[in-house]
Specification:
The complex is a heterodimer of chains A (about 110) and B (about 600). Chain A has about 110 residues and is α/β, with parallel strands linked by helices. Chain A is built from four helices and five strands. The model of chain A has no long low-confidence stretch (mean pLDDT about 90). Classes of the chains: A alpha/beta (about 110), B alpha+beta (about 600).
Amino acid sequence: MNHQLREQDGVTIVGLSGDIDLQNSPEARKVLLACVDKKRPVLVDLSGVGYIDSSGVASLVESLQTARKSGSKLVLVAVSDGVRRVLGLARLDKVFTICATVEEGLAKVR
Amino acid sequence: MSKRHGIDARADTRPGEAGEDAIYDHLGLLAEMGQEFASSLDIQASLTRAIEHITEYLDAEGGALFLLEDDGRILRCHACIGPSEITGLTLKSDKGIVGRCVKTNRGEIVRDAAKDPGFHSQVDATTGFTTRSILCAPMSVKDERIGAIELINKRGGDGLFAEADLHLLQAMSASAALAILNARMAEKLVEQERVARELELAAEIQRSLLPKPGTGEFPVAGVNHAARTVSGDFYDFFTLEDGRICFNLGDVSGKGMNAALLMAKTASVFRCLGKTLHQPGRLLGRLNAEICETVTRGMFVTMVGGLYDPATGIVRLANAGHEPPLFHDTAGAFASLPAEAPPLGILPLPQEQEDYPEVELKLDGGTLYIFTDGVTEGYLADGRELGVGGLKTLLRENASARAGDRLASVIARIDRGNTVLRDDLTMIAIDDRAGHARRTAAGNAPKPPAAVRETDGAEEVLLTVKVPSQPDRLKLIRNAVAETARLCGCTDDVGRDIVIAVDEACQNVIRHAYGGSPDGEISLEIRRRRGELVFLLRDYATTIDVSAVKPRDLDDVRPGGLGTHFIREVMDEVTFLPPPKDGGNLLRMVKRLS
């Protein structure tokens, strides 16, 4: 799994790519929590993620909860069908804000 | 007696005219009234005809029949004839001339009604009728007061009633009282019969809930004798597709109709759940939650529920507050299996602690007996209770008989047909003798348990793969599973679902069975048969506590337990098979392909 970080208009955009599974979810968790800790809005770009398992979903949930606690927003962007299905199985597809593109996501968090 | 003789003849023979004809006619009227009440189911109609006959016979202008109601507190007019319609009129039973007559239980002639302190002038005031004289006689049988008959204004002459009229009215009132009492008793009998008939129907439905006896060497037998028409006890057994037999025996607190209804509910819910849920502890947990939700306060059910596998002789059961079942082994020793959890319907448990504890028992040719306390607390011919000791003795004495006959011989000692039973008698036996003989004949070869036999129907092994218990090998498994799914024609969506379920199951093995250690091994086999894919996931770790593996509560969005939820969501069947001989765990998941 790889990740890229950038800032735009005070929003942290973190791009994840590869599979987020038992092997990689600890790293994904660390990256996501570091972004959320800045207490600024976070866009998680999942366009490069083809597979996510329960541990990956758990990392996303933990990040969302942390963000909410500090009053900032966390939005998922460009979610693939596979990832969307897993979020659906977990009944979390309504818990997360999901946007099609980074631009749409930026508009949402601003 | 024909009407002509009874009623019409009176025109010629008035009361007071002495002679045999008069007496004959009185008797005729009395007999006719008695018959009228006896043959008619409509008491009201008979009352109306009785007051008509009496009024006409005694040549009065009006008549009314009052009955005591509301525990004797009021008198209500049930029938009347004459110029004032007062049917339905009620008086306090200590008021008026009628009240006085009922109270003293003596007939009266009131020659100047208006001057009598008990007279109610109100009726006359509203009807415009003038009551001059009243004749009133009580209706009673022995000391039971029923009411009174009141006649108003003698027609003709001085308009006054004579002593002879009173005598006659008293005779007729007594006769009417008897007829009313008889009719009431008949009505009560009809009602009792209706209730008895309905109870018999309920009992018939209840008996139909019990399983039909198995044929030949079927290993489970049961018996149920109700102390009353309906029973609060039940038992059931049925064979699952994989050859295992699901069984239960329960006892609902109480013995009446309410117990029978709760019994019917509990038995039905068990049967329904038991067909798909093959973990007795979880099944009883669900049943408890269901009963707690709807049960009447103070009622509960004790129950033993379990599964018997004739291919292995293994019984898994859970005991919810029930009498300890007795295991009789081939060496002749008895072992008792006490309950470790409370009865169903008493305490709703949080979902994560909902499962009841399970006990596993290898029968090895022995027999497991489950029974209600009606059996051990049943009275023998000499008046003693059978007791657990007595039960053991009887079972030991009859050990060579067939299971059904053994139960029958125990029940025959308590239900001797000549006494009322103290409680319902219910018992089942799970006899492993035949199963054990078959297993031994098969040459002691450890046959796979019934649940693992996948040989029926065309079956094809699609993939066998063994990997070390390392997270970085999961992608390998995922890719292999994805390709296998594609090979079988699964859509992308179904393929993705299967991949996540298998991936999560492998993760559980790595994280929980091996505790994160990378030195273990995981083997996965995928088989295809009759429109379904079967996944067998095997590890070699310490056997894990199956009851601890359960999906998380979805209302709670904290991470954890999510993987198990994915597996159950995706797969149509998820079962932990009995642990293989050389240890470890064997998980079987089935995905049906539509």
